[in-house]
Amino acid sequence: MSWIHSVFVLFLILRWCITGESSPVVTNDSGAPMEKTEREALYSAIQGFVGDSWNGSDLYPDPCGWTPIQGVSCDLHDDLWYVTDLTLGLVHENSLSCNASLKIKPELFELKHLKSLTFFNCFTSPTTISKEDWINLGSNLESLEFRSNPGLIGELPETIGSLTKLKSLVVLENGFNGKLPTNLCGLSSLKRLVLAGNLFTGTIPNCFNGFKELLILDLSRNSLSGTLPLSIGEMVSLLKLDLSNNRLEGKLPRELGFLKNLTLLDLRNNRISGGLSKNVENIRSLTDLVLSGNPMCNSSDDVMVKMKWENMGNLVNLDLSKMGLRGEIPFGLTKLKRLRFLGLNDNDLTGTVPSKELETLPCLGALYINGNNLTGELRFSRKFYEKMGTRFKASKNPNLCMYESQEYVTPLGLKPCKMMMKGNLVIKQTWSNLKKEESSSSMGVMVTRHVLSNGFMWDLLLELSLIVLLLN
User: Fold this and answer.
1) Residue 368 class from Cβ within 10 Å (0-12 exposed, 13-18 middle, 19+ buried)?
2) Could you give the dihedral angle defined by the CA atoms of residues 234, 237, 239 and 241, in that order, rounded to the nearest 10 degrees?
3) Most-buried pick from 128, 182, 193, 357 (CB within 10 A)?
4) Any idea where this protein resides (predicted)?
C-alpha cells in the first residue's frame, strides 16, 4: 500500500470520528471505500435471488473492486462507492443465476443510489410482487426492467407509478395480468414504455397527454380492448407505436396524424374497422406501416385508390394484407422508391398488376399479392423472379397468369399465359381470313376443326362463333 493510499485511509477514519458517521466503510485497493451498510444490503438482496450459500467471499476486495459481480455497477458519491446498476439473471455467461425459490428481500430497496434495476429470466415459478417499498427507489431509479419472467403473475404494482424519475420502463414477456395502472401516465419523464407480451386486459388509459418526451410505446401481444385513446396524438416526440396483437376496435383516430415524428406504426391483428384514415398520409416520417389482419376496409369504398401513397416516400415496409381491401392496386405504390416489403395478399383487389412499374422499385425484395381477384398477365422479367425467389407470391388469383419463356419454371400456383397467347393469335388470323372469304359459315367450320386439332381451350370456340355471327 502506497503512502498516498495510507494518508487517504487515515483521512477517512478521522472524518468518520469527527463527524460521527455511524456506518463504517470497507476500503478496497482502488482507493475508494464502500459503506458497510451498502455492501450488506447488496449481499442480502443478491442472496434472496441466488441463495444464502452465496456470500461474496470470492470478490476482492468488494463488489466495486478488482473482481466485481457481473451485473453490478458502482459510482462514487461523497467519496464512497454505491451501487447504481443491478441486473439479476443470466444475461451473460458469468452472470449470477437466479434460484428457483428466490424472493425479493427488503434490503434491495435500501440501495438508495440505484439508477437501473433489471430482472432477466429470474421468476419461473408463480410469484407476485409486493406493492410496498418501491417508493424508496423513487428519488434515483431511471430504468426498471422485467424481461422474460413467466412466473411473474398478478397485477403490475401500482406503486411503480411513484418512480417519477423513470426514463425507461420495460415489462416484456412476463405473466402480469389485470388492467394497466392509470398512474403510469404520471411518469412524465419516460422515453420508453414497453408492456408487451403479458396478459394485460381492459382498455388503454386515455392519459397520454403527459408523455411529451416518450419515444417508444409498445403495448403489443396482450388482450387489450376498446378503442385507441384520443390522447395518443399528444405524444409529439413518439418514434415507434406498436399496439399489435390485441383486441382493439373502432376507427383509427384522426389524432394519429399529429404524430409527425413517427417512424413505425404497427396495429396488426386487431379488430380495427372503418377504413384507412387519410390522416395516416400526413405522417410523412413513417418507414414501417403494418395494418394487416384488421377488418378495416370491408365497405364498398375503394379506400386503397383514394390514399395518396406517393406522399409517403419514406416507407420501407408496408403490410396491408388480410384487410378486405377493394379496388385496384394504387399506382401511387409504384412511386415508393425505398419500399422493400409490400404485402397486399388475402384481400379483394381487382384489376391488373402494374408489373413493370413495381419492378423498377430499386429496393423491393418481397412482394405478396396472392389471394386476390387480380386479372391479366404478369409482365415481370425473369431476372425479377430470380431475385425475389420465395419472397414473391401471386397464387390464388384465378384469372391471373404469368408471361414467361418456356424454359423457366413458373411460380407455384400461377398459370402460364402461353395457351392464352396462342388462342389470341388464332383469333386474329381468323379475323383476317374471314374478311377474305365469301362464306363465313364454312370458314367458321374450318376454324373450329383447326382449334380442336391443336387441343386449344373449348371456350375459344365461342369467341370464334361470335366473330362469324358478327360478319353475317
Assistant:
1) middle
2) -20
3) 193
4) Cell membrane; Membrane
Rounded Cα distance, 79 and 236, in Å: 41
Which of 193, 151, 143, 203 is closest to 176 using CA atoms? 151
Rg value, the chain, Cα: 34
Cβ–Cβ under 8 Å, residues 68 and 89? no
At the top level of CATH, which class does the domain 298-416 belong to? alpha beta
Q: What does the CA dihedral 358, 363, 366, 372 come to, rounded to 10 degrees?
A: -20
* pTM attached to this predicted model: 0.82
Helix (H), strand (E) at residue 72: strand 72-77
The CA distance from 387 to 390, in Å, is: 9
**Residue 26 near residue 33, CB atoms below 8 Å:** yes
The whole-angstrom separation of Cα 436 and Cα 447 is 14
Map grid coordinates 430482472 to a residue. 119
Segment (H or E) for 433: helix 418-436
Which among 307, 309, 314 is positioned nearest to 288, based on CA atoms?
Answer: 314
Residues facing residue 203 across a β-bridge:
225
229-241 pLDDT, tens digit per residue, is 999 999 999 999 9
